[in-house]
Amino acid sequence: MRKFLLRWLSTAISIFIIARLFDNIYLAGFITALWAAAIFGVANTIIRPLLVFITLPINVLTLGLFTFVVNGIILKLSGAIVPGFKVGGLLSPIIASIVLSIVNLLITGFLGVSDK
Q1: Does 35 map to a domain?
Q2: DSSP letter for each residue of 76-102
Q3: I need a labelling partner for 30 at 20 to 30 A (CA). Which of 9, 55, 89, 104 fits?
Q4: Can you give the pTM of this predicted structure?
Q5: Total number of domains in the chain
């Protein structure tokens, strides 16, 4: 349970940071970031594998780079569901999802959350 809460918190902090870095991403506050992190986690668990499977041929052709587009779609979908969290544009969510992954990796490393 502790690992789950730390991962949720690190994702919320990461979303909060990328909202400050990108102009096309609007976030009302940290409570909204917590909700966005929860929806983002659920979407990553349920919808992302389906999207990766559906886009498998294009993913193979691009040597896996299309996965970044899938991650951007998941981020934009989270922005459409959570009130107070808006993700605009086409390229911005893709780049923001890359930055989100990097920031989340750094934060989970700092918090000492391991995959074990």
Answers
A1: yes
A2: HHHHHHSTTEEE-SSHHHHHHHHHHHH
A3: 89
A4: 0.86
A5: 1
